[in-house]
Amino acid sequence: LTGRLAGRPLRRREDERILRGRTRYLDDIDPPGAAHVAFVRSPFAHARINGIEVPDGLEGVFAVITAADLEGRVSDLPVQGIDGGEVSAEGHPVLAGEEVRYAGQPVAAVLAESRPAAEDAAERVDVDYDPLEPVLDARGSDVDMAHWHKVSGDVDGVFESAEHVVRARHALPRLAPVPMEPRGAIASYDEPDDMLTVWVSAQDSHRQLAGLAQVLGRTEDSIHVIVPDVGGAFGSKGAPAPETMLVAAAAMTSGRTVKWAEDREENFVASYQGRGVEAEVELALDGDATMLALRARIWADLGGYLMPTTAIPGHTTAMLMCGVYDIRVADVELVGRRTNKVPTGPYRGAGRPEAAYFLECTVDVAARELRIDPLEIRRRNLIREFPYETALGWTYDSGDYARCLDTAEELVNRERHSDEVRVVGTGFGMYVERAGGMFETADAELLPNGKLLVRSGSSPHGQGHDTTFAQLAADRLGVELEDVELRFGDSKEVPRGVGTFASRSVAMGGSAVVQAVDALKEKCAAIAAGRTMSLREVAEAEPGIRASARFSSDLVFSSGAYGAVIEIERATGRLRGLRLVAVDDAGTIVNPLLAEGQVIGGSAQGLGQCLVEEAVYDEEGNPTFASFVGYSLLTAAEMPPVLAAFVESPSPLNPLGAKGIGEGGAIGTPAAVANAVSDALGGVRIDPPFTDAKLWRALREADT
Amino acid sequence: VKPARFDYCAPASLDEALPLLGLETAVLAGGQSLVPLLNLRLARPELVVDVNGIAELDYIRADEGALRIGALTRQVALERSELVLRRWPLLHKAVRLVGHPQIRTRGTVGGSVAHADPAAELPAALIALGARFHLRSSGDARALAASEFFLGPLYTAREEDELLVEVEVPEQPEGAGSGFVEHARTHGDFATAGAAAVIAAGHAGIALLGAGPVPVRAEAAERALADGAAATEAAALAAQDVEDEHRRALCTELARRAIQEAMP
Q1: Are the C-beta atoms of residues A189 and A195 closer than 8 Å to each other?
Q2: Do A571 and B190 touch (CB under 8 A)?
Q3: Where would you tag: which of A191, A293, A358, B183 has the fewest CB atoms within 10 A of its CB?
């Protein structure tokens, strides 16, 4: 991308404000006289509720709300469907009625003069539970909540006649998203105007607005959603939370401003989680290692209810099971089951890391069984022409998979050796990622001082929109970066849009910004009518010039090839990453510095998933990970060098040629690291997290 | 989470503080363990006695060859003490591995010892050094050896009306070397396991953390080393009672490294 600004590695201009603390996060908003909420949460993974008793005279308490109080006022959270599949109508209730289905589920809400007072009272609310047997894994469950199955071609016939059939089983544990800022919401209701105002820590305003309208049975025009500064989400603040609904409903019934700012423990137990899937994958190959057909059965542990987006990651996994390979015959089934854990949902990667892990690890098994180099088997099977319609039904718009793989090979410097102290191995993982899709909006306004105000339907929670969108807008209008102001996240201020997820901001939001600014520029040119006028003069000649755009497109498909070199210490089993190589094709890159930051951050999460992250439930379904003692995150000290490179094959589907870069690191890293581990272990395969104890045992197995 | 209600007092002297201690009281020093426990409502004292104002408990000094550390001494002070670095370098090595700098700035030596986490660094190092723990109550004073002081996870011989006031570390043999090694999931995280070693001619002090319910003195390994055993052999003895196979291998390796580092 060539522009004065776009394509350049500019530093994030929002960082100074953030680093100096001139931000306003949800918990910084402190409305006087607000009622503070603490939830009574289920201590059982599965139980029947016989009754709830609230003692009299709770100090400082305004109200205790249970499901009975909400009857007729709220509905369960809506459930999004999946294309070509079925989902059951098991939306998450705002508060539990007769049954609780996971430890941590909200059962009652205490409104009090302070959060400590609310917590004191919440301890005294007496819920009579009859514990029931919990179901803790998908295969042990007999309740389907999401199902998708597609057969393309003569799968059985191809498998029967194929020279080689390779089978592998894989599992990825549940992960907690752990944004730096936990969730939270504040609501106030203005009765005379019948206007409900909700501040919420969320990825965007639009899905919160739609969810609130649906659950509360109100029109969208009667709700004002404001998203303040947001300290991260990683997918976990996309779908509206039941707690947010409670806060809004409570503001309407109590007549008070109601605030809920969750703590870390609540975030761990009640925020929807990522992954939690297993798969059996079979690959049919001919004598030249050409992939002929694929069979995959995927089991997803979806948790106790369907959050609005719970079914989406599993569907994405299923749809991407042929990956970057030209496999024309496929049979893929997704079985999403109900369990007694907190629901799952999109978490950075959202179905794509699962697909990459299942497929790429199977490809390495095939390479080993067929005695062919893992890079060679990939090269023989890569898709090389675009657009390409997969056997599963998506159309990849663009890519250069071979170049990604070549670049990764060049950068990684493959190693495999073993001595008395350590074993070292190298692994690769490729991916293709659905990104973008649907539509996004933007609005451009020329201010009286000749500066440009851009309102975007896509809002940031760490991505750097304020810089990248300003780069795009300033280039199009021919002004400086500081002449562009961006506004986001306020449903009264910004046009209705879709939001920030699926690595879609530049491709969709950025394209809308460019179109809006182009339209504004045309209006300005019409006003100038051939005269040489500054923008300020144009603004003076005709105040209030505005133009808006709504850009829509099919999905775009980013791709990449990742490499990892790791060592395992024999004495302790400790895994160390020696280096990671990340080659991503996100099409046109608007800001290489921010793109690299996304890759490194995503890789750190991907490596964290490999080394330490796992949301472990005990055999009764109690979370054992509800603090940073039980759930570990990587630090900078554990990060190996990440060599990031970009291949830019532009998407034909948007004016920028952009795809998505927000998730590649989290998608490519686990597969590459898992294959490196197996390479170091001489072919022994284990699933993440690769803890010291697991690796130590696997090494002993490998040595015998 | 916010703490349950408690009463709070901040005495300015030891004499003022001691009579306040008793059933259902918690002593607040650096707060790096107590405050999270309060916030999680796992600790629910009626009274929190904040000892941060008791300046007389904040000192590091050498006294007739022994090192005396006041219980309120911040971990960072121990880390930066020239005296400690010169004559008790094991403590310097161990304290640097306690959490992160922010934690060591608030956390105290006495707090870490009295909290008695079996995975903590300072108790293991102090055991290897043969330290004694001085307790005071209104009417009494006593000093205990580590074997008498550490009784279980987060459990010591300190009575409810007692305050840990001083840690006394004896002079180490001439020419002693020291080694401290630990293994944690991530940098600054709680250690999975670790080992501390002090070795001189005819003398060895070896202790393990994360190897059992209390920090363990590895007496068999100490005897073997004093008799001239090699590091590998002594390390195997040090970890021989650890039950889990992988943890035993881990402790053996960490003990070996600590011993090797300490060997003259």
Answers
A1: yes
A2: no
A3: A191
